């Protein structure tokens, strides 16, 4: 296939999925959703074929103009767009994508800021999927998004399931928008700053960190932690979404 004007496979970070069990798993997970699907980074169309095969309305986005043209020819029932997923709005209810590993963070940040979609299924690096799903402790990005989204680990993909084979395994990360957010949307910017202050704060315990982040007195902090069932020895990565929301409502505001 001719080289894209955007670069070759290495520049585009393309590792094409051909692992049959993962393709079946993607189909099963998509069956749990409703509405039109936006696929980002459709590549050679392995996932696109699974989505189209479910009888769903599919819009596939591909940066490589040659692959986009071939997909239009091979899958006439799909709407194929030659576009950049870093710029195109995520404006359909379901978002699916085999994300170029080096673009995972910027795509996730964009995705978690847009308000139209309801369900997302992303194939990312295994360790990234684990971290975002909170396995072994949450990250700051996950804590900042958790009042509005639920993250889950939906499967591991062996490196040999891609062509060419990357150096690490992949992971299926499922993200669902909460029907009822734990924090009001209008408070999101301030809440983000609160989480950042707690994750980066210094102190001899979480109570001291919270005092520094909120300027609340020690008694108020200890009372809020008790109500949220947060141990003083906890670290920010140990807190769950309801605990973050409770501390925000009592202290962060």
UniProtKB/TrEMBL annotation:
Record domain Ribosomal RNA adenine methylase transferase N-terminal: where: 22-179
Protein name: 23S rRNA (Adenine-N6)-dimethyltransferase
Family: Belongs to the class I-like SAM-binding methyltransferase superfamily. rRNA adenine N(6)-methyltransferase family.
NCBIfam families the UniProt entry points to: Erm23S_rRNA_broad
A molecular-function term among this protein's GO annotations: rRNA (adenine-N6,N6-)-dimethyltransferase activity
Presence of the UniProt keyword Transmembrane helix in the record: no
Coiled-coil blocks: none
Gene Ontology cellular component list: cytosol
């Amino acid at each position: 296939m001719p080289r894209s004007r955007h670069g070759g496979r290495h520049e585009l970070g393309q590792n094409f999925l051909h692992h049959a069990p993962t393709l079946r798993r993607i189909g099963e997970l998509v069956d749990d959703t409703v509405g039109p699907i936006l696929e980002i980074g459709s590549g050679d169309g392995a996932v696109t074929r699974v989505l189209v095969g479910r009888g769903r309305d599919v819009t596939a986005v591909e940066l490589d103009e040659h692959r986009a043209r071939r997909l239009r020819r091979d899958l006439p029932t799909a709407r194929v767009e030659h576009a950049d997923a870093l710029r195109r709005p995520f404006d359909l209810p379901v978002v699916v994508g085999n994300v170029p590993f080096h673009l995972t963070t910027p795509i996730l940040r964009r995705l978690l800021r847009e308000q139209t979609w309801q369900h997302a299924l992303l194939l990312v690096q295994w360790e990234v999927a684990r971290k975002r799903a909170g396995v072994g402790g949450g990250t700051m990005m996950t804590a900042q998004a958790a009042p509005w989204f639920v993250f889950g680990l939906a499967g591991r993909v062996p490196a040999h399931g891609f062509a060419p084979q990357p150096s690490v395994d992949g992971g299926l990360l499922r993200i669902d928008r909460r029907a009822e957010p734990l924090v009001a949307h209008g408070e999101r910017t301030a809440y983000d700053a609160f989480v950042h202050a707690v994750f980066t704060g210094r102190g001899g315990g979480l109570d001291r960190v919270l005092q520094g982040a909120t300027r609340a007195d020690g008694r108020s902090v200890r009372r809020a932690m008790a109500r949220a069932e947060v141990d003083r020895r906890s670290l920010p990565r140990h807190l769950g979404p309801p605990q973050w929301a409770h501390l925000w409502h009592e202290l962060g505001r």
